[in-house]
Amino acid sequence: MSASREVVLQAARQFIEYVNKSPSPYHAVEECRIRLLGAGFQELRETEPWKIEPKKKYFFTRNKSSLIAFTVGGQYKPGNGFSMVGAHTDSPCLKVKPDSKKTQSGYLSVGVECYGGGIWHTWMDRDLKVAGRVIVKNQDKLEHKLVHINRPILFIPNIAIHLLRTHNENFSPNKETHLLPVLATCVQMELCKPATSEDKSGGSCHAKKHHSLLSQLICDELKVSQENILDFELFLADTQPSIIGGALDEFILSPRLDNLLNAYCAMEGLISSVQDGDSFEKDPNIRMINLYDNEEVGSQSAHGAASSLTEFVMRRLSAGGTATSFEESIPKSLLVSADQAHAIHPNYSEKHESNHQVGFHKGVVFKINSNQRYATTAVTSSLLRVIAEKANVPIQDFVVRCDMPCGSTIGPIISAKLGLRTIDIGMPQLAMHSIREMACTSSIHQATTLYKAFFEHFPAVNDSLQME
Question: Cys staple from 338: which of 205, 214, 262, 315, with CB 3.0 to 4.6 Å?
């Protein structure tokens, strides 16, 4: 792709800044919210009537962990199509249990659940922090607050090889008993008891479910008292920041590449697409990004891709035309389901289909599966190939080996639910679902460029399609 090295690196640096501020889905959405407001988007509320106007930009959040942003083309009218890019805000991680207080063998430990399908042994021997959201009672109000304790307060120690001689052959940690992060020792807790006494919970039912030390860290961060905390959702995260690495500064080494990379690039592509006033003025479509939570656990939530969220928004924006405006819009629309793809692994090349070996720096990955684990069809891939050619973005194809199971995405879920044409794509990466993953710096610029081009060119390219 014809982009200078500095352009590629600058795009990667901006993405890294976003990831480092987004240790949880709530923080990822809040960072998007701040970016969209700064770009002139108007925040809407689902609970209020919407007055939507052509050439305007809008967004709203649900659960503070999912976000939909859209721009209304200058030529839009109800019944016209939607140019959509979908991604997700969640990643596999360890999540603090509702009652996390554990004491064993002289250690204060924190009970955690495994969220999604992580490579759990990679969470061992890492300096861990916590981040998420807290619901605080403030007089007669319930307040939603984000919390990020950005220092290593937790650690999951591995078992020494002297005590488990088969460590390098078949070690598989028990998710209930071997992944308990250590918070402190009982001895040190006793020595510091005047400052971190268990009595400081003040009778709060919720505070008694967690070590007072953990609760107090949260309270200190938010400047609230323990008795006012009603509940929280906390995720563990690696304190090591996302960075650019490799001898030639060509890799992004980072947590949560799956799938903050596409969430970020979709947002930047949408913002960039409306900076071309002529394209926006002539657009008959609504340009939309859909950033969902809970993809890693099946999308079955009120704010996930399997909910009615997408349909409700499309129906709401199609109102004001004929009785069938929404139904008319569906065949004029396309969803680009954007989720990360598997680059060929240099040490496990036999795990990849020999004719579909995805590489770094070689472009956007079109993901295809005959069993509909991906929603790509010849029609949807052709539409996006034409757009990618216009934007000078290279394309590579991926299929999984026939003797291996294939993962899936939000693509087939939304496609089947709405009867919506969909293509599954992503950017290449290694170590997917590890606590720390690896991608190439080219991915950010390539993905953002393609999403921008998709928003600008899809209506015209779609009009050129002859299906009679």
Answer: 262
Q: What is the dihedral of CA 348, 354, 358, 362, to 10 degrees?
A: 130
Q: Inform me whether the pLDDT recorded for 316 exceeds 50.
A: yes
The confidence score (pLDDT) of residue 202 equals 52
pLDDT (tens digit per residue) in 211-240: 999 999 999 999 999 999 999 999 999 999
Instruction: List Cβ neighbours of 246 (8 Å cut-off, separation of 6 or more).
Output: none
Under DSSP, is residue 395 helix (H, G, I), strand (E, B) or coil?
Answer: strand
223 Cβ neighbours under 8 A, 6+ residues apart: none
Residue 79, classed as helix, strand or coil, is coil
CA dihedral sign, ordered 364, 370, 376, 378: positive
Residue 104's beta-bridge partner residues? 107
- Tokens 């003797």 -> residue: 403
> Alpha carbon of 404 to those of 272, 319, 399, 441: distances in Å?
39, 45, 10, 29
Q: Among 192, 238, 233, 193, which residue's Cα sits nearest to residue 210?
A: 233
Strand order in the sheet with 57-62: 42-43, 57-62, 66-72, 286-292, 82-88, 334-338, 422-426, 364-367, 395-398
**Where do runs of H (alpha helix) occur along 283-418?**
309-318, 325-329, 378-391, 410-418
The two beta strands, 251-254 and 437-440, are antiparallel
**Nearest to residue 336, comparing CAs of 385, 297, 294?**
385
In terms of Cα–Cα distance, which of 455, 369, 462, 354 is closest to 408?
A: 369
Contact criterion met (CB below 8 Å) for 63 and 315? no
The SS3 call for residue 209 is helix
Give the pLDDT mean for 83-111: 97
Query: Under a CB-based contact definition with an 8 Å cutoff, are residues 353 and 110 in contact?
Result: no
- Taking alpha carbons only, the member of 280, 278, 335 closest to residue 57 is 280
- Cα separation values, 3 from 249, 276, 305, 335, 446, Å: 16, 19, 34, 27, 9
Torsion of CA 306, 23, 257, 42, to 10 degrees: 60
